[in-house]
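haha ok so turns out i had the wrong file open the whole time. this is the CORRECT one, sorry everyone. sequence first:
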Amino acid sequence: MLGLATCGLVTVLTSSSYRFEPTDYGTRVTVRDEGFIGRSEAAFGNAEHWERVLGWLSEYLAGAGAGAEKAR
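then structure:
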């Protein structure tokens, strides 16, 4: 997936990839975001964004699992 990141007045093209791997306890999600060489401020901001988004995903999936248990 391609995206844009802004650092100051400069906008750069970035790319994201996702990998899902089964584990003994569920699924490992690996997110790789590239295109930030020399743009550490944008990279750190983007990392904070992904932490927030993956937190929301985790909460959503935890609630979906609880909902599935209640439906049984």
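The radius of gyration is 16 Å.
again sry for the mixup
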